Amino acid sequence: MKKLISLILAMTFVLGAGISQAIAGGYGKQKVVYHVNYDTAKRQLGAMRNIKNHLNAVGDENVDLRVVMHGKGYTLLKRANTDMKFQAKVIDLKSRGVKMQICANTIKGKKINTKNDLFEVEQSDIVPSGVAELAHLQAKGYSYVKP
């Protein structure tokens, strides 16, 4: 009987530790790139919700998370320029360490003025090519997510 009780206590401890680890970011360190190249507001909001949930599950300190936008995906930052709901979500994600990157080819091709048309885009946020950046990050070990 003592062996059974010891076994039950040990299993309870192991299961409890596993649950605690999962709750406390037991996923370990991650490098992830989210790909946004669509202009549907509902889908862009869903992507930002996915990113927030990802951060909540893994822990801000355990993930290097990038969002690469090209093509119609630039409209996420265009909407954030005038839409307070989008703006609040972008500010929240950036404050948690998410890097929002935008394609220089898209900026040039669509004649976008980054200072006036897009929300909080710095020169360091602009990558030469969105698709090349996605491939580069994947080669460096980033997991690819297309919400």
How do you describe this structure in short?
With 147 residues, the chain is an alpha/beta fold.
Overall description:
The protein has a five-stranded parallel beta sheet, sandwiched between helices. It starts with a helix and ends with a strand. 54% of the residues lie in helices and 16% in strands. The chain has helices at residues 2-23, 41-58, 75-82, 84-95, 104-109, 114-117, 130-139, and strands at 30-36, 63-69, 99-103, 126-127, 143-145. It has one domain (29-145): Hypothetical Protein Ychn, Chain: A, CATH 3.40.1260.10. By secondary structure, the protein is α/β, with parallel strands linked by helices. Helix 2 (41-58) links the parallel strand 1 and strand 2 (63-69).
Characteristic key phrases:
single chain; 147 residues; alpha/beta; Hypothetical Protein Ychn, Chain: A; 5-stranded parallel sheet; 16% strand; globular
Q: Overall mean pLDDT score?
A: 89
Structural class: alpha/beta
Through-space gap between termini: 52 Å
CATH fold category name? Hypothetical Protein Ychn, Chain: A
Within the largest sheet, what's the order of strands? Answer: 4-3-2-1-5
Strand content: 15-25%
| Count of helix runs | 7
> SSE string, helix = H, strand = E?
HEHEHHEHHEHE
Classify the helix fraction into a percent range.
40-55%
Shape: globular
Low-confidence sequence ranges: 7-21
Per CATH, the architecture is: 3-Layer(aba) Sandwich
Number of strands: 5
Rg to the nearest angstrom?
Answer: 20 Å
| Count of discrete structural domains | 1
CATH class: Alpha Beta
